[in-house]
Design a protein that fits this description.
Distance between the termini: 80 Å
Helix content: 25-40%
Structural class: alpha/beta
Mean pLDDT: 97
Strand order of the largest sheet: 16-17-18-14-13-19-20
Oligomer: single chain
Number of helices: 17
Largest sheet: 7 strands, mixed
Bound molecules: nicotinamide-adenine-dinucleotide
Radius of gyration: 24 Å
Low-confidence stretches: none
Strand content: 15-25%
Length: 504
């Protein structure tokens, strides 16, 4: 494992990025850039160096109230009178602006989140622009249906019935730190396609690109108040947004623990809610798998985004015939990874998002060791500036160990052998999570036999960790409620109104 100097950067910071960081970062409410009423701020850090790079307003309940009022006002204003084709046009302009400002957004994301600038370009910018365009297409395709009814009162009466799809109202969006810009777009784009308005509260660790995105919303021509951003903590701003009576729908991505709190509040107010939560994805590798795919499995399945991915393949189950080869391959490959700043695209493992998260991942590794799991690398802890963690691979793992059951959200993977595939499925499903999973086999029968038995919202075959805007995404079990992406995602942002007309 090569550890580069944490501040090594081959990319020069753009003047626009430096300018954004130097000027006070503000929230956007209506068409104004505002500080919090309290003037309190939260520090934002560069995870590669551990140094503060900006301060953002520490929004509170009053700021949330202002933002929700702005969003409610916008719901009844010019936005409600815009034709679906006009909504689509503005969304397409927003996608263009995301791309036009792509380098700035990518650098900002890497400076704030720590991830490789390659990923920032590809996912945070590229996939977000694609997502916005995909959802823009749906804006002009929302439709109800006509209904034949059998109402028999009064005798002989005739009725014409149909459904209208209407925007659900103000959406309270709360996002995590692992894909900050992309997650913001996953919430904002379907809301706009359906004619809703939005108040978004980004993660306290990574608010910068969401603030910039909301500035771009205004530049694209969205009427003021259609999208608002309040920065702040989850406990204060997030909880206030969740509980606000002016919010009709909550769109949350984050941990299962916080998701449960949000779900309880949503039920109390009968708010619509979608929860995209944690995961502990299994990757089941059969003896007949194409061994040339191990590189893809490890690179994209396990170490993508330095393991800070809800679908990360953190539990590998390898059939006995290939178990040793899988372990050897993983160990060799992981030893060859270069660890360092995301601003050097050559680095494959980048820092954890925060000092707090670095401690969490280190504690998970320590617990694995204490419980008797065998480390293949014995990587040891990282000493130095920045929030880096050395990757680790565990074998001799028991299903009950916390390293097997709890989300690590870092570059850590377990490898467990199996003989009988039915046992592998039992172990794969032995978790409270059910977000993603994968099967690695060249045998079609094996694939078709086991895909239906896996309890997960997405099962990849000979691939892992690859969502798409047209493919429903969400969790079984405690990985969430509801699905994002695809046509089905729009239903989260629409109410169905039945209209029944008595014919004369
Ligand atoms: P988190 O739950 O700590 O925070 C997520 C968001 O919730 C943040 O904006 C935070 O400020 C806010 N929040 C915290 N407490 C709150 C409260 N009491 N009320 C309202 N809001 C509150 O999660 P995180 O650490 O930012 O992100 C990592 C987690 O997100 C992991 O569990 C990961 O699996 C999950 N995740 C899931 C998906 C998915 O699509 N299923 C995608 C990405 C991340």
């Amino acid at each position: 494992m090569q550890i580069a100097r944490p501040d090594t950067a081959v990319e020069e910071i753009l003047p626009s990025v430096a300018g954004f960081l130097e000027s006070p970062v503000m929230m956007v409410i209506g068409n104004e850039k505002v500080a919090s009423d309290t003037s309190e701020t939260l520090a934002v850090f560069n995870p590669a160096t551990g140094q503060k790079i900006a301060e953002v307003p520490k929004g509170n309940a009053q700021d949330i109230d202002k933002a929700v009022r702005a969003a409610r006002g916008a719901l009844k204003g010019e936005w409600s009178r815009m034709r679906p084709a006009d909504r689509q046009r503005v969304m397409l302009k927003l996608a263009d602006l995301i791309e036009a400002n792509g380098e700035e957004l990518a650098q900002l994301e890497t400076l704030n989140n720590g991830k490789s600038v390659m990923l920032s370009r590809m996912i945070e910018v590229g996939a977000s622009a694609d997502y916005m365009r995909y959802m823009a297409g749906w804006a002009t395709k929302i439709e109800g249906s006509t209904i034949d009814v059998s109402i028999s009162v009064p005798p002989g009466a005739k009725y014409h019935a149909y459904t209208r799809k209407e925007p659900v109202g103000v959406v309270g969006a709360i996002t995590p730190w692992n894909f900050p810009l992309n997650m913001a777009v996953w919430k904002i784009a379907p809301a706009l396609a359906c004619g809703c308005t939005v108040v978004i509260k980004p993660a306290e660790e990574t608010p910068l690109t969401t603030v910039r995105l909301v500035e771009l919303c205004l530049e694209a021509g969205l009427p003021p108040g259609v999208v608002n951003v309040v920065t702040g903590t989850g406990e204060e701003a997030g909880a206030a947004l969740t509980a606000h009576p002016g919010v009709q729908k909550l769109a949350f991505t984050g941990s299962t623990e916080v998701g449960k709190l949000i779900g309880v509040q949503a039920m109390q107010d009968m708010k619509r809610v979608t929860l995209e939560l944690g995961g502990k994805a299994p990757m089941i590798m059969f003896d007949d798998m194409d061994m040339d795919q191990l590189g893809v499995a490890a690179g994209i399945g396990v170490f993508f985004n330095s393991g800070q991915t809800c679908c990360a393949g953190t539990r590998i189950y390898a059939q006995k015939g290939i178990f040793d080869k899988v372990c050897d391959f993983l160990a060799d490959m992981t030893r060859s990874l270069s660890i360092g700043s995301g601003l050097d695209p050559a680095n494959q493992i980048n820092p954890m998002v925060s000092a707090k998260h670095q401690s969490h991942v280190n504690a998970c590794i320590a617990r694995g060791l204490a419980q008797g799991a065998k480390p293949l690398l014995n990587s040891g802890s990282y000493e130095g500036p920045g929030f880096f963690v050395r990757p680790e691979i565990f074998t001799a793992v028991d299903q009950k160990m916390s390293i097997m059951q709890d989300e690590v959200f870092g570059p850590v993977v377990t490898v467990t052998p199996f003989k009988d595939p039915d046992d592998a499925i039992v172990m794969a499903n032995d978790t409270r999570f059910g977000l993603g999973a994968s099967i690695w086999t060249t045998n079609l029968n094996t694939m078709h036999k086991y895909v239906p038995q896996i309890e997960a919202g997405t099962v990849w075959v000979n691939a892992h960790n690859l969502p798409d805007q047209n493919m429903p995404f969400g969790g079984y079990k405690q990985s969430g409620i509801g699905r994002e992406h695809g046509r089905a995602a729009l239903d989260n942002y629409l109410e169905t109104k039945s209209v029944c007309i008595a014919l004369g």
